[in-house]
Design a protein that fits this description.
Blueprint (H helix, E strand, L loop, with lengths): L1 E5 L2 E8 L4 E5 L21 E5 L15 H14 L5 E6 L1 H12 L4 E7 L8 H11 L1 H13 L4 H11 L20 H11 L15 E6 L7 H10 L3 E6 L6 H4 L1 H11 L3
Helix pairs in contact: 1-2, 3-4, 4-5
């Protein structure tokens, strides 16, 4: 447990294991805790670096909140830790940040591991339609959260409670977010930054190996979106987890970690 002074703010981070670095980027409005303990399995072959992005978790809520700043913070954290080249992992919103980081700093990225990814969020109507077909009550809460926003951290926690059934193939696992420090401002900043963000037309620039993990029953970043990534990125591999939604590391932890181990040679 430590903080790093990076670009005028304190970033909270935790590192486990030793070896080539693996930098973990979490989803918007959440923090690093939901990625643990599942990814600790990879600490036998790498230095797994978890951190809370600016405006999230135990990091400071200060300064700019946009993709350029979050990317600069990630680069600054690696530099602070003496790591100049890393595998970058991104889940959900973190996958967009990981892709953008790789496009801006390809020299710092040995490989990318993405989970719950798409090249852009340009299919919101499809997401809402799938949500309504699956769980109308949760879909209504999702739509309100996207359109109206969430003013408080407690409100964001309630929103996640209401929409969590959409994110799982089986029964929702509330324990995945049990330790989360929610950030309504972080969520709002993230959603604002999605407007106009796209990696379409830029993925061909990413020459590094890319692993895209996707749950077959992921309603928000479905296999079709993983296919869009793989169709444009020249060195991408897609692995589909058959009994998972948006959190395959929770629903199929063994198959998930095995897929990473089989592909990744840090």
């Amino acid at each position: 447990m430590a903080t790093a002074r990076v670009n005028g703010t304190d970033l909270y981070y935790e590192a486990v294991g030793s070896g080539p670095p693996l930098l973990m980027m979490h989803g918007t409005g959440l923090d690093h805790t939901y990625l643990r303990p599942w990814h600790d399995e990879l600490a036998d072959r790498s230095r797994v670096i978890y951190y809370d992005q600016r405006w999230h978790g135990r990091s400071e809520r200060t300064g700019p909140a946009d993709h350029a700043t979050w990317i600069a913070d990630a680069a600054g954290l690696l530099d602070h830790l003496g790591e100049h080249r890393a595998t970058i992992y991104g889940h959900s919103y973190g996958a967009w940040l990981a892709l953008a980081f790789a496009a801006l700093h390809p020299e710092c990225v040995s490989s990318l591991i993405l989970c719950g990814a798409s090249p852009a969020f340009d299919y919101a109507d499809e997401v809402i339609a799938r949500a309504q077909a699956r769980n109308p009550v949760a879909a209504s809460a999702l739509l309100e959260g996207m359109q109206v926003g969430v003013p408080t951290d407690a409100g964001l926690q309630q929103l996640w409670h209401d929409i969590l059934p959409l994110y799982f193939h089986g029964e929702p696992r509330s324990d995945v977010l049990a330790a989360t420090r929610y950030s309504a401002p972080g969520f709002a900043h993230g959603m604002r930054c999605l407007e106009g963000f796209t990696m379409v037309g830029r993925l061909a620039e990413l020459a590094m190996p890319i692993l895209v993990l996707v749950g077959r029953d992921d309603y928000i970043t479905p296999p079709s979106q993983a296919g869009r990534l793989a169709a444009e990125a020249p060195n991408a591999t897609v692995v589909e987890l058959a009994r998972s939604g948006h959190f395959p590391f929770v629903e199929e932890p063994a198959a998930y970690v095995d897929a990473i181990r089989a592909w990744w040679r840090p």
